[in-house]
Amino acid sequence: MAAVRPALGRVLPGSSMLFLCDMQEKFRHVVYFRQIVSVAARMLKVARLLNVPAVLTEQYPQGLGPTVPELGAQDLQPHSKTCLSMVPVVQQELDARPQLRSVLLCGLETQACILQTALDLLDRGLQVHVVVDACTSRSQVDRLVALSRMRQSGAFLSTSEGLILQLVGDAAHPQFKEVQKLIKEPSPDSGLLGLFQDQNPLFR
């Protein structure tokens, strides 16, 4: 009997969706917030170029404020939530896309809303790609362990540029030059080298 082939984690525009989680005013103090919002904004620009749908949530906006303007998501209707997972409030969007296979996940906090969203999506049979340079936490220990926890559960840990290049796929793509402009400058440092250096045992 042939062995079951593991999921490769390929990402294609026609079967992918971008999740933007809780990048709100009251979280500005969170370490690397500015950097991860910058990367998430880049992901959103690419999603628009490649016709990848995007959804946006806000955790208890009455207390935590609106989405920060620098994300560039003013055209998206935010889904207000109290549940940590994004999934309950975007259920309708998920159900409307039977072709959906992959979700690209950005935002915060990694150990809370990102982790619980990832687990809910995996439970639905979807492939989850955590954009590691677009997710953060107040505690970098929580961030590190949450990334490891999601990987243990079957999520893929990817960088924004790696996912962007998977989505565009070919230098002959009509939007390739526009995408290339967006990734010409490397993503800002968000402390990931410190998390992954020295063969961190959590990622062996």
From TrEMBL:
Superkingdom, taxonomy of origin: Eukaryota
Pfam families: Isochorismatase (PF00857)
Domain spans labelled Isochorismatase-like: 16-161
Self-association and partners: Interacts with CDKN2A.
Family: Belongs to the isochorismatase family.
Name of protein: Isochorismatase-like domain-containing protein
Naturally occurring in which organism (per UniProt): Rangifer tarandus platyrhynchus
